[in-house]
Design brief:
Distance between the termini of chain A: 89 Å
Strand order of the largest sheet of chain A: 2-1-3-4-5-11
Number of strands of chain A: 12
CATH architecture of the largest domain in chain A: 3-Layer(aba) Sandwich
Low-confidence stretches of chain A: 338-343
CATH topology of the largest domain in chain A: Rossmann fold
Radius of gyration of chain A: 27 Å
CATH class of the largest domain in chain A: Alpha Beta
Number of helices of chain A: 11
Shape of chain A: elongated
Oligomer: homodimer
Largest interface: A-B, 63 and 62 residues
DNA sequence: TTGTACGCGTTATCAA
DNA sequence: TTGATAACGCGTACAA
């Protein structure tokens, strides 16, 4: 008894059942016009051989689709993107599509390679969190009319569907809450303006100040913290000013945590707000306002946009790109019910 | 000018370049025996048509491999599994393999379906975090000799490679540290014993007590908390005993955070240790011992085991299953340098 | 009801 | 150096 080198094929099943490959194919596809007798014989052979249909060959015969959706993210270790992936997987799975993963680590070269490879594998569509500013390699037309949806960051110099978080609205609303609770000199801890979220969240912060008739003190703004440690240092710097801010809005959770540490260490008690909710936000023991949203929903919506494109007739005229904005909600942990009296 | 319905094929390129499909194939594969002239003509046609080789058809012709690794996890939203996925992607990517994703949500039925579908797609191998206790559907032989590696949980009634975290050793070491810091009546907050990690971490806890000559007080053990809130409630219950524990070992981060909240609220100050490090562990402001490890390394090792199997000659005899255990390290946040005097 | 011939896009083999 | 032919595993059209 020799070891099976490769999986049995439809022909093997046919030979064993004493019928033609075509008959086996029909049985497997539940074709109606098959005798119960032959049907049983075929199924018995299938069982005996452990036969499993080769979906690759099947798809090749059926057309160009691979039944795969390519998902390219910048950093899967970031819970934001892994939840996004989960949302994509859920919606794609409903249609029988599987998700192929690519991680770029914010490397544009790697993104280009991944996109090329996915196109070569004839994925049905692509969902991309773009790493760089130039998206010209992501145009649907340049990829053989492959449907493309951008996630978390907007298309810069191309036309493409995209799904975004309401970075601006969330930052504005959270800042407004800070102000409603009495802040009159809020500071900002954030990301470089070159990052989409960095600029949008800063814009929201500024607009909220403006709407409240407050003016921004540039000395309270620090924008290059990518770790909790650097965020803490930046917050401490700002807090040591002769007239420190009475609140912080932080553009992401690392800055929020850094600010939290700085505040815990210092004597003052500025109010704190930040973008991104996290599991232990209510554990910190300090009043905190966070901007929450559902990353999984981002993935679901991206997948839906993509499926819409995939379902279109290939010959149909290109429809205009769509943009979906995922709403944010502001959550207050341990804040006083009564807003403090404004100065 | 009519819209291209489907991507151009090798034949299209051949026609445009005025050569045979075979010649185009050779050019694309950098076959040496091609004239520079024809080579240029072909490449020009490739460029003009935006041709991209169909890897699906190529793989079909070349053999059974799809160049895909199936990764089946229980919950991608859990950072542990998304980091695992990242590790798998990194190692698989080095070999030019892509990763297809499947999320089971701990549903065994879904796991079975996913594994079947991946096998039908002729993935080169499978890495699975098994959801249930019965793994009979994951035997390599039953899947057409498809290589299978289990991750995070050991094979129960089958022979298969696997990669595990040192749950036992980590729990034992962290508990020993608690004891070294003066604990003599530690409590345990954890998961049901039915979960692999639940039983292993509890075992480590018990052995550490035993080695220190301490006896376990069953009243200090709570084992069914799956959320921070229930963990907090359980910890409060135990703390309200007439003679409460002087320390807690928590089997995962949710229990650690629940215990943290309970401790913050109560007057007593039991020492705290827990499995799983988390980004803000050092932000909590309470002394804390955590068991840390690298989930990404788990993924990398799983991928390496899988590649080993894939690289073997198909006819070769089955080699015995291998088991790799990822080491843990114990980290102390804000613990006193001098261990307290033991009673 | 079942089988034959051919094609999907690519490559190995052999001939020209 | 290049091209014709067959084949990978499967499905459709048509014939038997």
């Amino acid at each position: 008894m020799s070891a099976e080198q490769s999986p049995p094929t439809l022909r093997d099943v046919a030979a064993r059942a004493g019928v033609s490959p075509m008959t086996v194919s029909r049985v497997l596809r539940d074709h109606p016009r098959v005798t119960e007798r032959t049907r049983e014989r075929v199924l018995a052979a299938v069982d005996a051989l452990g036969y499993r249909r080769n979906e690759l060959a099947r798809n090749l015969r059926l057309g160009r689709t691979s039944g795969l959706v390519g998902l390219v993210v910048t950093n899967l270790a970031n819970p934001f993107y892994s939840q996004l992936a989960l949302g994509v997987e859920a919606i794609a799975g409903e249609r029988g599509l599987k998700v192929v993963l690519g991680n770029t680590a914010e490397d544009v070269q790697r993104e280009r390679r991944l996109v090329e490879e996915f196109a070569a594998r004839r994925v049905d569509g692509l969902i991309v969190v773009p790493a760089g500013a130039d998206h010209s390699h992501l145009t649907s037309s340049r990829l053989g009319r492959l449907p493309v949806v951008l996630a978390a960051r907007p298309p810069s110099n191309i036309a493409a569907d995209c799904v975004l978080v309401d970075d601006f609205g969330g930052a504005r609303e959270a800042t407004a809450r800070l102000i409603a609770h009495g802040a009159i000199r809020p500071g900002f801890l954030g990301l470089p303006l070159s990052a989409w979220t960095g600029s949008e969240r800063f814009r929201g912060f500024c607009v909220a100040l403006d709407e409240a008739g407050l003016t921004l003190d540039e000395r309270y703004v620090r924008r290059n913290q990518r770790t909790i440690a650097t965020a803490e240092a930046a917050a401490l710097q700002v807090l040591s000013l002769p007239d420190p801010p009475d609140a912080f809005f932080c553009a992401n959770s690392r800055n929020t945590l850094g600010a939290f540490r700085a505040i815990s260490a210092s004597g003052s008690r500025p109010a704190l707000a930040g973008f991104d909710d996290f599991e232990m936000a209510d554990v910190l023991g300090l009043p905190l306002i966070v901007v929450a949203y559902d990353p999984e929903e981002l993935g679901r919506q991206a997948a839906r946009l993509l499926l819409d494109r995939i379902d279109r007739e290939p010959g149909a005229a290109d429809s205009p790109p769509r943009r979906i904005v995922i709403p944010t909600t502001v959550v207050e942990y341990g804040m006083a019910e009564q807003p403090a009296v404004r100065g």
